[in-house]
Amino acid sequence: MKKIGKQVLMLETKEGNPRNGEGSFVRLQNGVIMHVYTEYYGTDWCDDAVARISACYSSDEGESWSEDSVLLEKDAN
Fold it and tell me: Whole-angstrom Cα distance, residue 61 to residue 58?
């Protein structure tokens, strides 16, 4: 199989972040690339575990990425 493109982002898991899920890349009007994805947190990695929608940004065509920021998080209640 022919490889097209290159890997530009790897979201590593860590303690308190057992899994990262589905995501999409979009180019914003200012040219920055935004990656939005499902970030599971806590200790459970199952599909119905607690998660939030997070994003990171690149202004150099994916060579480097910002720290993650939370876009949407469900209230604890």
Answer: 6
pLDDT 10s per residue in the chain (77 long)? Answer: 677 778 889 898 999 999 999 999 999 999 999 999 999 998 988 888 899 999 999 999 999 999 999 999 876 55
* Secondary structure, 3-state, 3-68: CCCCCCCCCCCECCECEEEEEEEEECCCCCEEEEEEEECCCCCCCCCCEEEEEEEECCCCCCCCCC
Q: Which two tokens stand for residue 17?
A: 């972040």
- What's the one-letter identity of residue 58? S
* Cα–Cα distance, 68 to 53 (Å, whole number): 10
pTM comes to: 0.83
